[in-house]
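> tool_call: predict_assembly(chains=two)
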Amino acid sequence: MAIEQSAPAARPHWLNLRGAGRPRLLIMLCIAWLVLVLMVAIGADYLAPFAYTEQSLLNRLKPPAFLGGNPKYLLGTDGLGRDVLSRLIYATRMSVLIAIVGSMIGATVGTLLGFLAAHFRGIIEDVVMVFVDFQASMPFFIIALAVLAFFGNNFELFLVVVGLYGWEVYARLTRSLVLQANGQGYAFAIRTLGVHPVRIYARHILPNIMSVLIVQVTLNFPELILIETSLSFLGLGIQPPQTSLGLMLGEGRNYLATVWWTGIPAGLVIFLTTLSISLVGDWLRDKLDPTLKIAEA
Amino acid sequence: MMRLQFILTKLLRGLLTLLLAVTFVFIVLRVSGDPVSMMLPDDTPPAIVAEYRAAWGLDRPLPEQYVRFIWSAVHGDLGYSFRDDRPALTVVLERVPMTLLLGVCGFIITVVIGLLAGIAAALKRGTSVDHAAMAFSIFGHSMPNFFLAILMILLFSMTWRLLPSSGGATWWHLILPAVTLGIINAGTVARFTRSSMLEVLHQPYMRTARAKGLRLTRRVMSHAIPNAAIPVVTVLGLRLGGLIAGAVVVETVFAWPGIGLMLVNAVGQRDLPVVQTIVLLVALTMVITNFIVDLTYGWLDPRIENRPNKEG
């Protein structure tokens, strides 16, 4: 027990919203937006006024309520008479879902490989690192396109492909962090006690490197949203009748000249969400790592 | 001696990446189904299928197929495009100039805007110039390239009717896609330039230069920028991947007749010979660029070449 206490475990102070550095108004707005997006994603079934596939051919291409349209359709309707607001809500759910599940896939695969590389070293490490280098030197977008071309598109495959985005960063990061941790006193001390390696990694080293990995998640998350929405935008990701923010903007592209409201709101949601995550992520990193501030000052 | 070893290591690494790219295509093609039915249109007569199978050695054991695949890839023999019955490589290479034109223009815009904004932000740190530059950087980082492209079309083509929105017929057509591509990547470059410059500006030699009475422009041009250049070159090299991915999207939105548009169409139509050709071509481009970036490091900072491979 005494050993565990002496471990240089950073207190998880990254959720401490009060205290010295209170978030600025902009950050609060970003957090509010992210909470809203998350609530919309969770409560889509209750919030959406219509089913996202419900067509009403009599009400095609109606402008939004604030442009003199029917107040029943707050953001207007698209070319098939579907309610844009409802579609936006479901599209948000789809994109958020993919980004969250995808983040977990990439983080888990990458972190595991990083641990394997750091534990076994030798040939396993070399193989992992060769793949890391390969992934880092090939644009992920192109690889994803190729896989979707060869295998054809289905939802599960798309989820996994998008999820794998950024695995190599986690792998490289975890490997070097674990190598560092292995050289530190606490890891050595626990090892001499005869604790099983898996337990050492899961119970002692992982908590210590977690904060860095979480920062990486905040960096990775907006890029994941961009990858998913880009692919869907090009018509190579989420397929109709399902919808995602990218697909909505892609479909709206054809009506740009006359009925911009079918696509632009989806683009705005993507932009505001990635912007918010980037700003909140920056702010979190500053809070997480006080040395950064000292170094900059 | 060190230099030769450095170059050879980097060269070997590049070749390994290329080999992995070829292997990736080989494996994916075989895991995803019968290569013949994938590579030939559905209505191909059985006789031709059998002939094709024999010609490509698909009746041979896998390792032999693998070697043959690499062999033909090295010779540029990557199958025939489904769309027009010409070799995939020929079809793809025809589009290269258009993509290069767009890429180079986008890259120049990225470098000019990114460097200027980054250097200005670092020199005027904490002022409104700095804030504006960083706001721009975050904007570029968060803005989906396809959304920016659409907004550009909405504003410049549809509302103000200044520029054409699709095609590649004239120089006017180049402006919107190139600016979109350039702005998206400029944000990241600006950010890195700023932090790299800030680090350099606090070095003792900058104080010395100032004490010598050198003018600001001289201090920045001949002392700060060369020393701040290495991280920036790295970022520019790394951004190439982003530039290629961005080009795919931007070309599609603006219907710019380059490789990116071709790739998206080929994926949609499952024109696999074209897809694999483009993937390998991208891999080759990346490897060559990384190699050049590595050599540039050595030139910018000779210490890098003499450093043994660092751990971690």
